[in-house]
Amino acid sequence: MKVLKSFTITILSLLFTSIILVGLYLFLSGFAGLIILVGGVAGLFLLFILSFKNPVSKHSKFFKWKGKVHLSFLLSYLLVTGILLIFIGSLNFVLGEELGELSARDKLNLLAGNAAVNTRVLDEITDDYSVRITNHMTFKFPAHLEPKVDEIIERMDEVETLEKQVFGEPLQKTKKLEIIILANAKEYSRIVPWAPSSQVGSYVRHRNRIMIYQQEEVPSLQGIFSHEYSHYLLDIFLEQNKVDFEEIPKWYHEGVSEYVSLQVIGGDRYPHASIPEISLNNLRNHVEWNKASRESDVYYLAEKAIEYAVGNSKDRKVLSTVILQGKETGSFEESFQELTGFDLTILSNRIYTAQEDLNHAYATCQNSDYETSVSLYQETVKKHPGESLAWHQYALCLVKHKKWNEAISVRRTMIGLEPNVAGSYITLSQLLTLVDTNEAVKTAEMAEELGVKENREYVDDYYETWLAEITRYHRLMNAKNYEEAYQAMSQSEQLSTSPEILEELNDIRNRLQ
Fold first, then answer.
1. Gene3D superfamilies attached here (predicted)?
2. Which position has the higher pLDDT, 334 or 87?
């Protein structure tokens, strides 16, 4: 009985000691922790030696252990405590050296899987950065990226418009936001060494900081900023409405941010990998999200879920209403289903089904099975009428088989779905070259106007060049200079990816001459 009592006391003592050590090191700096580590190990070693000294044992209650069994409990306690102290203390010191001084919250975030920031390297890199303060935002950036910062600031009105639509009104920016724009991915990985290589930005809630970097291969810095800024807006909305951050699923946080980003920059998002077994129900917290993201494009799934929810309700404000109603009812999932009409499992399956339908139809079209592929695309757009990617692929299939009138009709439908996307107007303009050059010019003018508004860096002068080409072609055709018109258009870089259109233009020239 005494042995059992000693064993219980030892286990409870170890548990209590572990809690003290973990709590202590959460709030200690790396250097202070190192001092306690050295002192603690030395003290434990001294107690270990003294436990064998009979004179000491006789005069100390701590060492009054009868027999070898009781002595083994004491030695086990000292040994395990020493190991814990060395492990926790060493980890704390390494974190301090590698990442700079971390707060207790930073350390907990790191343990939870959130990438911690190396503040020492961050300060070193950004020491000579330029600073721009506008409203509630403070930008820090290398001097050569000032034009990018100008573009972000100039397009804040678009983000603010979406903010009003999603949240019903402009949010009170009581939290000042720091926005750090790094020069490249190397700098980002030095500052956030444990971040996934695919991560292009982050929003740190407790620091009110966005950190992104310029990518040469994916130059839409505006899109990355819009995504992270949406996290900031959602964070403010939750605080102002006294909603616990953790009560909202991770997929919803990311889905809303990705949705707003795509609304700002335009275009579709293509999944790079998908696993149908991964459902929105399995993406509630950070751990589940990170695990699933290693295997599947969960950002695509989350964004599509938000897109379907908004499309089904015809009101972007449903995204914030879901949160508020969920707070009242105590169930986010029930609120989401009631307001959007989607059960999360059924919605996940619907998104995957749409993707599978598209892949099947696309493969059939590539195999030149026109009748079957058209039938498949017709079924797909009927099942998923709001899926712009389905309409886009359908149009490509019709172009491949030179069904011009049908392709033009589908492209007009796409403009109805994406009235503010320049790319939709460009693809229609190129098709209109075959049937109505005057309308082709007008559509190209609209594309250029929207392109300037989008200000997407990778477009360069694409829209302007196409407008010049189609305008010249229109004039030459009106002048009945068919040979020169065709020769000019045959050299178009924009049409080089559409050999079917070029072949049809050649046929038009031959028929008119």
1. Collagenase ColT, N-terminal domain, Tetratricopeptide repeat domain
2. 334
User: What's the CATH class of domain 113-240?
Assistant: alpha beta
Which pair of structure tokens corresponds to residue 369?
């099975």
Beta bridge partners of 4: none
Exposed/middle/buried for 272, CB within 10 Å: 0-12, 13-18, 19+? exposed
| Residue-wise pLDDT tens digits, 184-197 | 888 888 888 777 77
Q: Which amino acid is at 101?
A: E
Kindly list the distances between the CA atom of residue 433 and the CA atoms of 64, 422, 489, 497, in Å, as whole numbers in the listed order.
Answer: 98, 17, 10, 15
In this structure, what DSSP letter does residue 116 have? P
Residue 157 parent element (H or E): helix 156-167
**How confident is the model at residue 267, as a pLDDT?**
65
What is the secondary structure of 386-398 as a DSSP string?
A: T-HHHHHHHHHHH
Helix (H, G, I), strand (E, B) or coil at 204: strand
Type of residue at 358: L
Q: Which amino acid is at 481?
A: N
pLDDT in tens, 80-124: 777 777 777 777 676 665 555 666 666 665 555 455 677 778 888
User: Above 60 in pLDDT, residue 400?
Assistant: yes
Domain boundary assignment for the chain: 2-99, 113-240, 242-342, 409-513
The 3-state DSSP class for residue 139 equals strand
The mean of the pLDDT values for the chain is 81
Decide: helix, strand or coil at residue 401.
coil
Buried b or exposed e, range 294-333, using 16+ CB within 10 angstroms: eebbbbbbbbbbbbbbbeebeebebbbbbbebbbeeeebb
